[in-house]
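Lab channel / #folding
Pinned by the channel admin:
"Please post every new chain as: sequence first, then the structure tokens as a reply. Keep commentary short and put observations after the output so the thread stays searchable."

First post following the new format, from NK:
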Amino acid sequence: MDKQEPIAWMVYTLDGTSVCVTDNPTDFTENHRALPLYTTPQPQEFVCSTDKEKLAQWMIQRGYATGHGDTVEDLLNELDWQIAENWTRGMVNGVHAEREACAKLVEILIPEQTEEGLIGHTIAKAIRARGEQ
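Reply from TO:
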């Protein structure tokens, strides 16, 4: 199979607080990791002799900890919880960012005042409160 050029990159912060997809991964800092995305799986070259070593090298290349994995199964268990944690953190942070963006937009677009206060501010407060439930 011929090696393809990436069609985009998934870029994430090393602390897991931000994930995005871009066509230009060079605008990011050393606090980010960019993973190439292809239309089909790409062949991987490993310099290890065992499946365990190959998997450990693959994990390290992608920023995952190998823990104390003595077997391939141990390494896969380490990888499983790390992937789940990263995606969960990314989803939660994405929902929070979207909620805050909506609240700010409402504050800008609805500036009218009532006896209770600014309508937009009241709605934005309710939007933000949903994230604290």
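NK: The chain has a mean pLDDT of 83.
TO: also worth noting, The longest strand covers residues 8-13.
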